Amino acid sequence: MTRTKKSGMKTRGGRVAVIGALGLASVALAAGPAFAKGGVDITAPPTAQVGKTFTVAAHGDDDAAGYLRLCLEGRSGGQAWHRVTCGAVAPTGTEAQATAQVKAAQRGALEYRAIVYGLTSPTDRNPVRERTSAPVTVNVR
Fold first, then answer.
1. What DSSP designation does 34 have?
2. How many CB atoms lie within 10 A of CB 83?
3. What DSSP character marks residue 135?
4. What is the DSSP-derived secondary structure letter of residue 29?
């Protein structure tokens, strides 16, 4: 008498489905965006006196570039942003810093923000904007 064995198509089909799902999941994870770590902080006094000097300081880091440079920008009365100062170029792994001494010339609100630029070398002429801080406001009285 001859015995016939089941082919096990259900078992093989289940294995193929599991292997396919795992392969698809690994491809989806590899193709997903990678996020760089880092941040930027800016400090300035909330108020200042007309004719007095105050300090705006910022520090930031980002691991997406080989070198970093931090710049401070300012504006008054909702005008366009203009560069106040830039700090020295720093290698990744150290914080980029910038500090500006600003003299309050007239009454009103002044806004400042910090921007971290990524560079491929210390003399890179095409920096890439990596991070921008939220603006801080200094009310000049």
1. P
2. 10
3. P
4. H
Return the closest-CA partner of residue 141 out of 18, 11, 48, 35: 48
Give the residue from 133, 128, 101 showing the smallest Cα distance to 115: 133
Query: Band of the pLDDT at 32, cuts 50, 70, 90?
Result: very low
Q: Is 116 or 1 the better-scoring residue by pLDDT?
A: 116
Type of residue numbered 92: T
Task: Give the tens place of pLDDT for each residue, 82-101.
Answer: 999 999 999 988 899 999 99
**What is this structure's pTM?**
0.73
Backbone φ/ψ region at 63: left (φ over 0), alpha (ψ -120 to 50), beta? alpha
Task: Record the tokens describing residue 68, joined without a space.
Answer: 């970093």
Token pair, residue 117, equals 């630029």
Asked if 60 and 117 count as a contact pair (C-beta separation under 8 A), the reply is: no
- Rounded to 10 degrees, what is the CA torsion of 138, 79, 125, 41? 30
Q: Tokens at residue 78, please?
A: 């909702």
Neighbours of 29 (CB within 10 A): 8
